[in-house]
Specification:
Layout: H1 5-14, E1 18-22, H2 31-41, E2 45-49, E3 74-77, H3 81-94, E4 98-101, H4 108-116, E5 120-122, H5 127-134
Parallel strand pairs: 1-2, 1-3, 3-4, 4-5
Helix pairs in contact: 3-4
């Protein structure tokens, strides 16, 4: 319902190659770490966004989306659902083209607000699962 196949393909293949990964830290046990690795393998530049602003996968981290000094195409969100809406609003504010809420991250109001603002939006899906499905 919140992941139309055409939108998934458009975000992965046509929205741009700079993906801010919110919640990404250097903890190799976290899903965000592995998904960021898959995104890099698919040619995406990942930008870690985490309060500790750690360098991950060779990319400098930032504490917030607003701290990133260059354009971001997609904001990939690995935070709890109750925090995700604020991240989506920040993505709109920085001029991102798309927002992607990871598996289990659901906020229907944020989904509607983000789409109403003109951004592409996916919710409750994982690009590391969707990329191989695209062929």
């Amino acid at each position: 319902m919140y992941a139309e196949p055409g939108i998934i393909r458009k975000i992965i293949e046509g929205t741009g190659d700079t993906w801010a990964v919110v919640g990404l830290s250097a903890n190799e046990q976290r899903a965000a770490y592995r998904v960021a690795e898959v995104l890099q393998g698919h040619g995406k530049r990942i930008v870690p966004v985490h309060p500790r602003a750690e360098t991950v996968h060779g990319e400098r981290g930032y504490a917030t989306l607003a701290d990133i000094p260059f354009p971001v195409d997609v904001v990939d969100v690995f935070v709890r659902s109750e925090l995700a809406g604020a991240v989506a609003d920040e993505a709109v504010a920085i001029g991102a083209k798309a927002v992607w809420f990871q598996l289990g991250v659901i906020d229907e109001d944020a989904y509607d607000r983000t789409r109403d603002a003109g951004l592409l939006m996916i919710m409750d899906r994982c690009p590391a699962i969707e990329i191989p499905r695209l062929g």
